[in-house]
Amino acid sequence: MQFAGWCFIVSLLAELGGVGLIVCEALRMRSLLAKWEQRNPKRNPGGSWRQVLIMNRVMRLLFTARIRVTGAVALLLVGIIAGTVGNFASM
Asked: Contact at 8 Å (CB) between 18 and 73?
């Protein structure tokens, strides 16, 4: 296989990996925030004690999400650069 073909394969895999990481992170946050909202069944504006108990998990997930999102952005950039290199190599 030619160099351009390998660049396109790397680009495809990196971009799919980056999009996959972003989708997984969105689903994880949506499920955790849905659980957090369910902990306040009376819809008190100040929240409930059960929401406070789950807040540690929410905050830990938010802080570690930056690392996963940074990895997703890095994969997307690798995919874009590899695709561009492959495009120029195929000319």
From this structure: yes
pLDDT digits (tens, 9 = 90+) for 34-48: 887 887 777 777 777
- Measured distance CA(80)–CA(71) in Å, rounded: 14
Nearest Cα neighbor of 71 from 16, 21, 12, 7 is 21
Which among 62, 91, 60, 83 is positioned nearest to 14, based on CA atoms? 83
- pTM score: 0.76
The span from the CA of 78 to the CA of 18, in Å, is 10
Q: What is the pLDDT of residues 50-64, one digit of tens each?
A: 777 778 777 887 788
